[in-house]
Amino acid sequence: MKTLFTVSLLFISILSHSQRLIVEQRTVKNEEGNDQNSWTARLDDDMNTCMDSYENFMKEKFRIKVEKEGKNMVVAKKIQLAQLTNLRMDQLTLFTTEASGTAVSFMFSLGYDIHLGLDSYPDNFKSAEEFVKGFVRYHYESLYTKRMKEIEEKIKSKQSDIESNGKRTDRNNKSIADNNKDGGAEKNKAKNDKMLRENETYTEDSATKRREITDLEGELNKLSESLKKVKEFN
User: Fold this and answer.
1) What pLDDT, on a 0 to 100 scale, did the predictor assign at position 90?
2) How much is the pTM?
3) Closest CA to 135 of 229, 35, 41, 17
4) Is CB count within 10 Å lower at the N or C end of the chain?
């Protein structure tokens, strides 16, 4: 069985924390089953996530709507990308599942058998590399920013719980002190013991949440470092 991709020797890569940022030149099979030069991004996310990211990228950055053709091809038809060429084109994107995630291959068709590639319009094809890197930056910036906001919300929620535990503990301590006034400690022993047990639970819960916050802050720092490297990817 023939493989879908033939990988060329030309590639550009950079490591970002545990995340690899890679754009490489590949020869792939287009819709007609013919070999075509592409710029391929290797992403560590599933195919559906990558497809959604590409659709949002084209919509937000270029106000271009895309259409899905088949299970793993998305096409932007009869568009102009001034950074590549003044000619109208179809921009085809092929998504393929790989062991470590998804390969996203960008092809640029001017019509019939005319494509941006190593042999035809090579300068324009070279410019397309930056277009694909722009997608890679957009993809990870969007994912990392979303994840960081989720973590920040979790931290805020846990901090609120710790504050609430402190207020409950203060109320119990005040009630215990009031119960102990005028020799009432023995009479109110059952009530006081119950509140003391509650305070222990509040203390343990707060300690657990502080440890969780520390872990979340560590994850947040790693994502921040990864985001910085993504922005530097060029």
Assistant:
1) 94
2) 0.81
3) 41
4) N
